[in-house]
């Protein structure tokens, strides 16, 4: 039995169930982390232009000696490139030092308009983010479809898309997104989104599986109890939760011992999965990644940030 090592995308391609996250992996550490992970058996790297470290990620990939064709590389179209996806992709390809991606995602269903304050995180004179709420996301998706047809990206998908946003896009898409990468863990199980994506053939990817920096969900009392009962670490429980549910999981670490142990998911029983599925009930749900542009994106469980930005 055991747990699956790979899942299938709706393109027919195979994707490794566990990929190394690279957000907040600093230049100087990320090169070593990526090279170590690949030598240690990882074959899936999750990158993004906005992480500001794709050059080092590319160096780490080359340092590993693993052939490009054996590695599944994902990157993401940043918000300020939504009006020119081709240029956004080229920047990423140049930085990574590769001529194709295995998966390219729209990072957020939000266009930011670059201005003299910044080309990536621009602000308005009043300090708010320069979000263009009038931008039609189907225009961005159309460009993604063209990139897919050009062969420069082997699959296209989205990140941070709620059911209403996917439903709107479905009216015009000619290529169904292969993936929706969202925050997902037992405290934010997103059951409705999961059902919707399963029905459409969109594979979910879980980001921030440990609750992001400092891994706060690992110290949740219920997670610790389930881990103790199973005689594995809380990290293993949090990773295995996704793999057992047919979801890709993207743990980030720059620490070799953690990178190594994070690739070992274990099989969970139906009752263990059910217990994890219910942890967020009764007002315990918690979203940890809440950038201010995230409001109004149709998630019914958006917490934390101020509404007027
Ligand atoms: N699409 C999006 O909008 C989006 C948003 C957020 C994240 N992501 C992707 O998802 C990836 C993962 O999410 P994340 O970076 O937010 O956080 P995460 O993977 O939930 O947690 C990372 C934190 O956990 C620590 N950690 C890792 N393994 C551990 C272990 N076995 N024991 C104890 N601590 C451990 C790491 O420390 P060390 O590194 O110091 O070891 C780091 O502080 C990102 O890197 C990125 O690729 C995508």
From TrEMBL:
SUPFAM superfamilies: NAD(P)-linked oxidoreductase
GO molecular function: oxidoreductase activity, acting on the CH-OH group of donors, NAD or NADP as acceptor
Binding site for substrate: 107
One matching Pfam family: Aldo_ket_red
Domain NADP-dependent oxidoreductase: 18-280
Keyword annotations: Oxidoreductase
Record flagged with keyword Cell membrane: no
Active site (UniProt): 51 (proton donor)
UniProt KW Oxidoreductase keyword: yes
Site annotation Lowers pKa of active site Tyr: residues: 76
Protein name per the record: Protein GCY
Protein source organism: Ophiobolus disseminans
